[in-house]
Amino acid sequence: MAARKSTPPDAPEVIVDFTFDRGLLHVAVINISDAPATEVTVSFDLPFRGLNGEVEVSSLPMFRRIAFLAPHKRIETLVDTSAAYFERDEPTAIVAMVTYNDAAGHAHKRRIAHDIAIYRDIAYVVSPPAGTMPESTARPTPDTGTVRHGRPQG
Fold first, then answer.
1. pTM
2. Which residues, in sequence order, are CB contacts of 152 under 8 Å at separation 6+?
3. What is the pLDDT of residues 93-152, one digit of tens each?
């Protein structure tokens, strides 16, 4: 069994992550290290659409070339509501291939597999419009907002 090549401690580490926040799906390119990365590109094994199916998110310019990604920098975009994403039967098993260079020009490559289906059944509260919540309520609850989950309704 071959030994796995380790990343030098001062090398950048760039990842792609999908996040779920109160019913919204986002995708981000993140430099999780203390070192800058250059020439960052991301390719996905499957295309995926967002914003009610109107935008091919996987082909946005933010994935084609980020000339410089500072340490701990995050570039993020909204994909869609989870309900709309799953209702369209968009891909849920997505692999991102991230390539980038370190300050010395050495190339790095990282494969990251995601399973977006984990967000399908997460419950969340949809806040009522501003000004309609009782003043005594600091944040929405099932009593002051609507509770939903990512699975398409209907």
1. 0.80
2. 83, 86, 87
3. 999 999 999 999 999 999 999 999 999 999 988 877 766 655 554 554 444 556 565 555
**What does the DSSP 8-state code read for residue 82?**
H
Here the tokens at position 14 are: 């760039």
Do 121 and 102 form a contact (C-beta atoms < 8 A)? no
C-beta separation of 30 from 36 below 8 A: no
| One-letter amino acid for residue 21 of the chain | D
- Check residue 63 and give left, alpha or beta (phi > 0: left; psi -120 to 50: alpha): alpha
Residue 151 to residue 123: CA distance in whole angstroms: 9
DSSP state of 117: G
DSSP character for 7?
P
